[in-house]
Amino acid sequence: MNISSYKYDLIITRSEPIALHLIHFFLKTQAKKIAMFSDVGYLNPYYSKFFLLKKVILFIIEKKIIDKVNILTHTNRFVIEKYVHNGFESSKFRIFPNPLEISELSDNVEYRDKKCKEIISLAYTGSLYGSRNPDRFFSYLADQENKNFTVYLVGAVRNMYYEKHRFGKVGTLLKNKELNLLKNKIEYFGLNENIKILPFMRKSELEEFIKNNIDILVNIDAPSEVNLFLSSKVVDYIQYNLPILNISNEELL
Q1: Any idea what DSSP says for residue 68?
Q2: What gap in Å lies between CA 180 and CA 149, rounded to an integer?
Q3: Residue 178 CA to chain centroid, in angstroms?
Q4: Is the dihedral of CA 251, 126, 158, 59 positive or negative?
Q5: How far apart are CA 122 and CA 215, in angstroms?
Q6: Residue 37: which of 75, 82, 84, 76 has the closest Cα?
Q7: Smallest Cα–Cα separation from 134: which of 177, 173, 171, 184?
Q8: Which residue of 19, 26, 140, 234 is surrounded by the most CB atoms within 10 Å?
Q9: Per the confidence metrics, is the pTM higher than 0.70?
Q10: Using one digit for the tens of pLDDT, what is the confidence trace for 69-93?
């Protein structure tokens, strides 16, 4: 479909990847354009020093995107202030928080008392890459005298590696490489019997899995002096009405 040939009044692009918003470069239309970011781009604190080139490229892309759109949204004013400080046009920014439907909370899992449960089940449902690594989490688990827990890492590596036909054989090689590195780390901490890696799940499958199996959800914070945003992972977790174990940097504790 040629969007440019249709009479739209407003065109909105939402979330990630940032490349999604590049569509605004090719739309020859008078419609108003809004780019909505659920996470930061080049300011992402999960990118380590090895991602310097990627951060530079993202900076250039985001600069061009804000020039092309009428409004660009981020989830809070702290992020926007940081962008403006780095030379972005302030007048186009708006705040649009990550949505949470409060009415859905009562329809999901009720809080369950697990004091008498023999094995406690924890789940982390994100990707581990760059500076978002599980070392502190694994170290904490290894220090526990009572190993009455099972941790499920759902996906564990980048979700895009699980997408069919996106990267082909290269994606499979990268996925297997990162999974093997993660398995070696699990073995290093002596947690082979306590940590299970599961493949990426679709939203409905993940919700069902958490409702039926999980007692505690795990969030791994960015190693940053200033946390620019409430993790979208936490927003996702809130709906389950389960305890959340947050893993942060030692310097921030």
Answers
A1: H
A2: 22
A3: 17
A4: negative
A5: 6
A6: 75
A7: 184
A8: 234
A9: no
A10: 999 998 888 889 989 998 998 999 9
